Amino acid sequence: MKKDILLLPGDGIGPEIIDSAVAILEAIAKKFKHEFTFKQHLIGGAAIDAASTPLPTETIAAAKKVDAVLLGAVGGPKWDQNPSHLRPERGLLAIRKALDLYANLRPVKGFEHLLDASPLKPDIINGSDLLIVRELTGGLYFGEPSQRSKDGQSVVDTLTYTRYEMERIIKKAFESAQLRKQKLTSVDKANVLESSKLWREIVDQQKPFYPDVEVNHMLVDAAAMKLITEPNSFDVIVTENMFGDILSDEASVLTGSLGMLPSASLAENGIGLYEPAHGSAPDIAGQGIANPIAMILSAAMMLRYSFKMDTEASNIEQAVEATINNGYYTADLKVKTGSLVTTKEMTNNILRNI
Ligand code: NAI
Ligand code: MG
């Protein structure tokens, strides 16, 4: 198959890990006789420097023409003092909105070999395997108004959702649960927030259409606690934008590092964007030591969700697991034994296992 892929390396470690993903995809193309072509555009701080906007119109236009988008990460201290419309993170929010990427899927799977890389007890995290389905284009991060009063003494952020926006992400989560262990935990704050009350109603309304899925509701504070005390009690978690953002970073602790977590951001009928759950890691950028696995597993998700290449995706996932099982680790993984490797060496080891 022939597929066009847009690369948005972004900032910090973004370009380093995008290189790793491209190397892996080229190996997959060769092995399975596909043709992948890569185009590259600007986003984030790199785009601000070159074009004075975090998301140039050419980038959006290019994204709409390809079969899928791979994004590294955006942001860094260089742009932290910029006014909010010139912040790299704006580019990310804007591309999610422009492509209507409403569903963010974040699988969290612990590797047996990395049990001691987590600060959590091995017997708690052993076997953890869950999927966070996060709403990505609504809620607090997009609600207007979001501003400070003229006198600086008060501030407002707005949490808005339409019924339609809630329904589509909840349906997506039910469908995801059907493909996994048929267990869905809906996370909200229905004891306080009006938005969460509607969310709960919609979950209950959808339930009869998915009789094979067992559903329960959980308040977000309790869910935050259970996620690290009883991770094995979860299969699919569905939640709104900000709760999902926070819970997915928390869940990364199960895997030993944020550098292990991939994600897929999907539209209803169209393009998918694939990016690691972590940010641009400015503290280690340019040193060649970033963990490329979250990015590489994101590329595998691209093959699975956008290209329907299940075998190829599994090939990458197995190659990653084999490499980890062979004892290779990057500096972010606090394991006690094995071989410490750089970004390039990790990538080459994974390539050998493809
Ligand atoms: P971060 O995820 O970039 O880094 C948090 C910690 O994890 C750092 O110590 C970093 O070195 C480490 N880390 C993250 N990914 C790693 C990898 N692949 N390999 C090894 N270590 C890794 O989050 P932080 O520091 O809060 O934010 C840094 C910048 O990234 C900020 O400008 C922030 O706004 C931006 N950001 C961008 C995101 C995106 O592009 N999707 C998401 C989150 C933050
Ligand atoms: Mg985040």
Offer a few descriptive terms.
Rossmann fold; about 350 residues; binds 1,4-dihydronicotinamide adenine dinucleotide; 10-stranded mixed sheet; two-stranded antiparallel ribbon
- Tell me the domain tally: 2
- The count of β-strands is 14
Low-confidence spans: pLDDT under 50, at least 5 residues?
Answer: none
CATH superfamily of the largest domain: Isopropylmalate Dehydrogenase
The helical percent reads: 40-55%
Tally of individual helices: 12
Q: Please write the CATH class name of the largest domain.
A: Alpha Beta
- Proportion of beta-strand residues: 15-25%
What is the gyration radius calculated from CA atoms?
20 Å
What's the CATH topology name of the largest domain?
Isopropylmalate Dehydrogenase
Name given to the CATH architecture of the largest domain: 3-Layer(aba) Sandwich
Sheet of most strands: 10 strands, mixed
Structural class: alpha/beta
Small ligands present:
1,4-dihydronicotinamide adenine dinucleotide, magnesium ion
Look at the structure and give the mean pLDDT.
Answer: 96
Q: What order do the helices and strands follow?
A: EHEHHEHEHEEEHEHEHEHEEHHEEH
Enumerate the strands of the largest sheet in spatial order, edge to edge or round the barrel.
2-1-3-12-11-4-5-10-8-9
Shape: globular
Could you please describe the fold and organization of this structure?
The protein is an alpha/beta fold and 354 residues long. It folds into 2 domains: 1-107 and 258-354, 3-Layer(aba) Sandwich (Isopropylmalate Dehydrogenase), CATH 3.40.718.10; 119-131 and 155-255, Response regulator (Rossmann fold). Helix content is 40%, strand content 20%. It is built from 12 helices and 14 strands. The chain has helices at 14-32, 45-51, 57-65, 88-98, 122-125, 163-178, 194-206, 220-229, 241-255, 293-305, 310-325, 343-352; strands at 2-10, 35-40, 68-73, 103-109, 129-135, 143-148, 155-158, 183-188, 214-219, 236-239, 264-266, 272-274, 328-329, 339-340. The strands form 3 sheets. A 10-stranded mixed beta sheet has the order 2-1-3-12-11-4-5-10-8-9, sandwiched between helices. A hairpin with a 6-residue loop joins strand 6 and strand 7. Helix 8 (220-229) packs parallel to helix 9, helix 10 (293-305) runs antiparallel to helix 11 (310-325) and helix 11 crosses helix 12. The protein is globular, with a radius of gyration of 20 Å. The relative contact order is 0.17. The model has no long low-confidence stretch (mean pLDDT 96). 1,4-dihydronicotinamide adenine dinucleotide binds at residues 13, 73-76, 89, 92, 258-259, 275, 278-284, 290-291, 294, 332. It is found in: Cytoplasm. It catalyses: (2R,3S)-3-isopropylmalate + NAD(+) = 4-methyl-2-oxopentanoate + CO2 + NADH.
